[in-house]
Fold:
Amino acid sequence: MKKWLVKLNPRASILTVMCCAVLAVAGIAGSAVPVIRAAEEAGTAAETATAAGAAAEPVASESWIDELFREVLFKENPLSDQLRLRFNLTMNGEPAAEATIGWSGGAAATVSANLPLLGMKNLGLAIRPSGFVYVKAGPMEEVIAQLVAYEPYLRLVPLVFNRNLLETVLARRPYDVKLLGETEIMGRKAYVLQLTVRMGALPDLIKGVLNQLAGDSATAQALAEVGLPVEGVLQGLDAVFPAFSKVMAEAPSPIVRWYVDVLDHVTLGHEVDDAAFNEWLAKMSSSSEQEGKPALAAPPAPAPELKLEDLVVGEDGHIRQLIWRTQVDLPVGAIAPFFFPGSGKGEGAPVPAPGTESPTTDTMDSMIASHADLRLTTSAVDGYYLPTEVTGVVRINPAVVALLLGAREGEGWIMPPAGEPGAPVPEALEYPFRLTLDWNFSQGADPALLENAKLVEGEQAWAQVQKALAAGDDRALIAPLARLVRLAPSFVYAHQLLSDAYYNTGETWAAVAELEQVVMLQPDNGWALNNLAYMYVDHDLDWERGLELAEQAYALLENEPAVADTLGWAYYKNGRLEEAAAKLEEAVKLLEENDTATEEDHAILNYHLAAVYAAQGRYAEARAKLEISLELQPDLEEARALLEEVVENLKAKGQ
Structure:
């Protein structure tokens, strides 16, 4: 059978620029085999046959071709409300992994898996729109709530990736599409479509999309919550828009030529002509670097070729499967910078282990060449052509594992087998594998995981916490927070809130216990260390433990007046008066420079410093600080009681 070769070039140039800017919403950008499928009622097909790649006069109206292209995007890339995808991987004929991913929209998703290769079974994960996550690994199960902070990001998914935004993109027409004619590929008639990206239209496209996002209040609010205020972005864009438009207007237009089956409208290959664009991009990057500006982009790397090897046609004449071949090379040099910053450059390389040398990119590439020979099958699934099987052989040199593990452990690189000079490089090992994919658009996330009792209870408890916070009711916070930290013991924010609630209701030891959980989970949480230290010291619970924590907090937040105050107060409680006075005087200076400090902050700090002065016998200075403290906070009883003692001592000294 004749083998027909189509060179695919999915580089970071035309296909990436065009697809990311124009088609990303439709999901085409990252697909290995882009699928084009027109509506059956779209009109009469072109009749003039041409040789592959040969130009011809368009034989259909521009409006028909444009509608064909629009139908391709809408019909072949649905924004599905639900999806369930099953994976099954075997290596060397043995089961290696099986997993099922379910998606029900609104950021509700589940994953269940078994990993025999790693000896792991009954793994499960579920994420709800609130951001609460349920994790299961065998008998172990836990609710993880840190993702609550990422809830705004999750809400963006259905707000941004929608039909309205795609309509906005298409209305801007940053491309020209036309039908060149027909050709024959492996006995099948195929349309020859040519898509020209108009780079000069990109600035208007970006503004159009941003205006669309800004025009929807829910989307604009969600973007603002994640630190992307659309209005501010638009204002910033206005400042650079003229220069940006001028640069893009000078950019050559990349061209994509698609070969689409006439009957089934499935892609039989495509070619990319982006040489002029890549050359222009390289020149722009070079000139930017010469002017001391950041490079616009790195020159694209060569892409692998994808061969259409065979296709399977049913009795009705429709394509059932397409079989593709490709080989993917992964030189270690491509990933070396992630493990060896500066490797091959002479800068930033890790310190080598004794008796070893740090590798260079060239050395690693020549010694450790790993690659995979792949056979990809795409099949007709519910009217779409989707990847259903990947088979092949992965060739991996054992040196990769030794090298990367050594780098990760900070041991430099070790030549296998034992780092001995002149040791032979081991032969690469080959691993045949088979990956199958089963697509199902009638099912979504797994209800058994998504509606897990612990996960739902945690989410309900969090809703009660939000209600109590809004009401400012500390007592009402305690019960739901206690349930939440039991269900999600690693939820740091809940421990912090519960500690505050206990403290504000007089349960000091309970507040301490919750903050101890926080510093155990986050040893570098400076504010948790500071607050815990202050509780131990100020309430005379454990002065030594308080000082230890206060010193750790100060090492992390030395410019914070509250932290310096805690450390000074800890020194005082532990009898180290000179250090206490120095640190508290430092805290006073820091507080005077702090615009957000309250009168209560100044009052307490002056009281602390007065207590140290009084212990040192510096009664006049102590009285001055206490008078300032009481002027700012008249109801500070500790300061008033100390002032009476200081006055008595001054009288005794005749002052």
Summary: The radius of gyration is 33 Å. Confidence is low (pLDDT under 50) at residues 1-59, 332-368, 407-421.
